[in-house]
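Give me the fold.
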Amino acid sequence: MVAQASTASERGTEARPSLFMEQRAGLEFMQLMTSPVYYGWGVARGAGAPVMVIPGFMGSDRYLTVLRGWLRRTGYHPHRSGIWLMAGSPYDLMARIIARAEEIHTLEGRRIKVIGHSMGGIMARILARLRPDMIEQVITLGSPLSEYPRQAAHPMVQVAAEFVVRDRSIPLEMERGLMGLLADPLPADVRMTAIYTKQDPIVDWRACIDPDPRAESIEVCGTHTGLSWNSQVYRHLGELLAA
């Protein structure tokens, strides 16, 4: 499902969902535990393809254990990102992710599929832009990929990010230059899919649409946090990864 651009009037009246609704993420987790897709029923097998999973802002590999376990059960080789906390200098984070991708690429002897949740999706797309020789496919979950609207994240998240995800030893223009790579189209042989939810109070869903017209965008129902254990997301992942 490809999202349609909102009109100016729609953008002016559409309110951001309440942060209170993020509490439903726990319910999404319970729904996943009782869903056939979680047990791999009806999910195409992965034939051992390597998949690196990257966490979101202030997250670590630990909360993505459920997703990696599901990938393993459905026939993939899941890999941690090696990020123990998604915070600090974007340049340092990106360097660590590139180094980890190089390790996996060497180990597996083939290009990698990458799934990134929230900020992890930003890093995944930049990784594919910088090293398309290593990356075969990128799937983002609730990741702000475009500059529209300018204030994509919730104000509270923006304030936190200003203090936590910054390298004050380099000019702000250089940091913005790294993020500017998001606007660059990916090579034709790198498949890109952005999964988003309009119930997302953390990131404006319109910013989650990849600016590359060749990219696919898929809407699901759920919370921002819960995208990493949403049964609809898992069903789509099964189809996308095996395509």
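Helices lie at 8-13, 25-33, 65-73, 90-108, 119-130, 155-164, 172-179, 231-242.
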